[in-house]
Amino acid sequence: MSAFLDQDQDGRVDALELERVEWERDDQGRRTDKIVLEAGIVMPTERVLIAIGFEGPQAAPLNDERLTLTRRHTLQTDERKMTPVPGVFVAGDASRGQSLVVWAIGEGRDAARQIDLWLMGTSRLPASLQTPYPPLPPRGL
Description:
The protein is of the alpha+beta class. Helix content is 17%, strand content 20%.
């Protein structure tokens, strides 16, 4: 992704500017160079979900002083995984720090449920990590 765009100047992201890239890799498979195959692709959007890898989140590029980092360098959220910015939710590495992908998946599911609740007022999506119920035993036991 190259940039968040606010084309109608209403203070909200309504498009993303993207690049189609190909990565060159060294002998160990690490990325060494990025080749831009196509630049300036504009994709209209109503919502943006950001997946941030192991380097940790950076609040500054999101351009909102209400987004703050905790002492663990994760984005501050409430129990619903929502930041102080209404409608901006965080999960995975951005909210818990570096961890296993299974935690990121579980938090992503919980964030999806919280987003559904926030948008619709109700949700049929199951809770993933935040459930009072123990795991079910495998079928057939």
